[in-house]
Amino acid sequence: MIEVVAPGPYATVQDLGRPGYGHLGVPRSGAADAPSLRLANRLVGNPEGAAGIELTFGGAVLRFLRGAWTALAGAPCPIALAGGSPGMHAPFWVPAGGELRVGTPAAGLRTYLAVRGGIDVPPVLGSRSADSLSGLGPAPLAPGRVLPVGPTGALPPITVDAAPARGGAPGALRVLPGPRDDWFAPGALAALCAQPYEVSQDSNRVGVRLLGRPLERAREGELPSEGMVAGSLQVPPDGRPIIFLADHPPTGGYPVIAVLAAAGLAAAAQLRPGDRVRFRL
């Protein structure tokens, strides 16, 4: 059992989401930076899809009521524990009664904490993920919340001592044009890639809102709602793109000028307000 002493600015339980329910209007959700959750789980010997804690901008304090192996991956944060200062991207033991303090990341936005056995909250539609858009899954963490940890007896031994940290800030995020780039004025795709955009403070798990030169449309009106995918660059009437993240709506009526290549989704999830980002076809 893990007691939440302080959750930081925003913390949720996340696994790899609940795919297959888009036709019912249910987003996939899951970890915004899935590779980091997978890595944290591998470090403690969990299946990659086990539920962990997604910390937004760090700042959490967690008290372990029983000893457990733990690892953190994603945005690098200072970590404090009585008797030492564990590092990122390596498994470490938290004794019973130990209080783990996670500081603020120097870069990036989301940090993932995995505990051996996984966070064992009840699943909803096959997933333990909290969905900020639909409200499915467990509520965001709050002080006093106690999280159960799953059994560890059937897990393989921990065989990884450490993993290399991901490289620094990404270069330009690669995008594929369309499917509705024909709704925009000639040269709109070139304009999208010609200058950096700034990440707005209004961004969240639904999407990264961008500030910069508006993209001009060639058509008026709106589309009938159609399916959306993570990484879609949807452009509302103000002309400023939004990168859809894990909790994006399954459908939308604003045109999508381009879609991130899958490899860029994790980098987009680590963008924080004030960061600048460029796109490349």
From TrEMBL:
ATP-binding is among the record's keywords: yes
Keywords, alphabetical: ATP-binding, Hydrolase, Nucleotide-binding
InterPro entries listed in its UniProt record: CT_A_B, Cyclophilin-like_dom_sf, PxpC
Signal peptide: none
Pfam families named in the record: CT_A_B (PF02626)
Recorded superkingdom: Bacteria
Keyword ATP-binding attributed: yes
Carboxyltransferase domain location: 23-281
Protein name (Swiss-Prot/TrEMBL): Biotin-dependent carboxyltransferase family protein
